[in-house]
Amino acid sequence: MYPNMFNRDEIFFRLGVEKSEDLLQALRNVKNPNFQDDKGISYLHRACQTHYVEAIKILLELGANPNINDMQGNSPILEAIGSVNESNNIILELMLEHGLDLDKMEGDMTLKEMIESFGDDEANKIIEKYCH
How is residue 36 annotated by DSSP? Predict the structure, then answer.
């Protein structure tokens, strides 16, 4: 049913196209919440691409690493906040609660600097709350 490409499994594909209780239940039972395909794209990257807050929560609770990079060096949070969505700040806060490193380099700037460059006042308030 799902194409075999880049070593992706069924859950990986479903995260890109589906939001259902069945998928959330399947996620709760994954053996490796840090699963990555051959391009380094993780379940968390996929859930962030689709702004699937419930899936992101489950993955983080299972121990998914919010700082995991794909092969291009991108963190999952950038998949979410790279496009305008009403869930972005919820996702940002969730990721920070689970150890997102704002000092992590994303290209030539830190994640904090990159997020601040978007000029989102609400996101910047969230960041300040987590900076000591």
Answer: B
**In terms of Cα–Cα distance, which of 50, 84, 80, 45 is closest to 66?**
45
Amino acid occupying residue 82? G
Contact assessment for residue 114 and residue 106, using Cβ atoms and an 8 Å cutoff: yes
| Tokens standing for residue 4 | 């075999």
**Chunked mean pLDDT (size 10), the chain, 132 residues:** 80 95 97 96 97 98 97 94 93 98 94 93 94 75
* Sequence-separated (6 or more) residues with CB below 8 Å from residue 110: 102, 103, 104
Q: What is the CATH number of domain 10-130?
A: 1.25.40.20
Rg of the chain taking only CA atoms, in angstroms: 14
User: Does the pTM exceed 0.85?
Assistant: yes
